[in-house]
Amino acid sequence: MAGTEIFGTEEIRAVTDVIERRMVHRYGSHHLRNGIYRVEEFENKAKKITGSGYALGVANGTAALIVALKGIGIQPGDEIITTPFSFIATVEAIVACNAVPVLGEIDGTLGLDADSVERLISGRTRAIMPVHMFGAAADMDRFTDLGKKYNLPVIEDACEVVGGTYKGRYLGSLGTCGTWSFDPNKTLTVGEGGIVLTDSEDVYFKMDCYHDHGHIHSKEHDRGAEGKSGLGVNYRLSEVQGALGIVALEKMLSALGMLRAAKKKILKAALDAGLKPRPVHDEEGDTASHVVFILPTAEKAKRFKAAANHAGGSFGIIADNTWHYAKHWKALEEMGEKDYFGNRTPSYSPASMAKSDAMLSCAVMAGLNTCMDDSAVEKMIEAVRAGAQAALQR
Ligand SMILES: Cc1ncc(COP(=O)(O)O)c(C=O)c1O
Known about the structure:
Elements: H1 9-21, H2 38-50, E1 54-58, H3 61-71, E2 79-82, H4 89-96, E3 100-103, H5 114-120, E4 125-129, H6 140-150, E5 155-157, E6 165-166, E7 169-170, E8 177-181, E9 194-198, H7 201-210, H8 239-272, E10 290-294, H9 298-310, E11 316-317, H10 330-338, H11 354-361, E12 363-367, H12 374-392
Parallel strand pairs: 2-3, 2-4, 5-8
Antiparallel strand pairs: 1-9, 6-7, 8-9, 10-12, 11-12
Helix pairs in contact: 1-8, 2-8, 3-4, 3-7, 8-12, 9-12
This protein binds pyridoxal-5'-phosphate.
């Protein structure tokens, strides 16, 4: 899943050009740059692809989430309902805004369960944050409906699914805001970088100011002579990353095409071997960055993993994944005990995630490389067959 796999001469040319022009700051020096603004081009490309009204390039996906939360006006103590199956950055972003993460359960697709979200909505809830995990969309129709019903913004954490779609629309462009990551583990990378998408001019203005020390950006004034709007931080993206981002988005469809072709072959072999792939809300829109199988029991998942990895695979059981499952995030439990926001203890105790725990204990996953040749695909198929044999046919 490392985006550098597709690096080539295009990236070298893009970066070299920025360095030769010595113009790495995305803002200011308007009279010296011949009208060249690479981060802005990257943002415009993201807007064109997704149909979003606004796109803001930021330092990384975590920053994108924080900026989105600031943009919708999240205040200390506000509750945000999200999923226990995500990269920890989702809740870190909430905590960074001194807000309180409230964790729902997951549904059969392993995405945030909309029914559990509805049960958790309270007078303190200020946003819903579904996460599109391991390539596949969360239940966006339900979240859009819940957002409308309870007048709550929906922030899509689409950091893992650049280019993924849901019913024909790009993930990240369906909610009030959506975030993309281009970190080194993603299918498309710029080293470190992120984008926030939104259709709201007001939210965009707040995010744009906040991510750059409150600057009200304008090409009519040079930097420093611009107005200020409150306090902010520095989550700016540089022109080097912007230049890489333009190339990354140009390569997006071909990268996804390679992943999808490999995954199709692996899934066919898996189905033939009697395995149940993770059901998804929109198969066509899956970015195919991962394969996930749901075994009938946790014991069978363990047998699958052992045999598949013995045969050369690199499968893991999602419930054991310390990066992606809240049960392992002890710091959150401690924060809840201290309750230093003066709010009720957030619902992230292991007991509140019993359903998620049972499902994630039966789920085995492996990441796919973008440039898998036939022998790499065949090797994974052999591992899948060995896992299936050990888990299912005894
Ligand atoms: C679901 C999810 N959200 C947020 C992030 C944070 O992105 P970044 O690493 O660019 O800060 C990641 C990165 O792994 C992620 O997978």
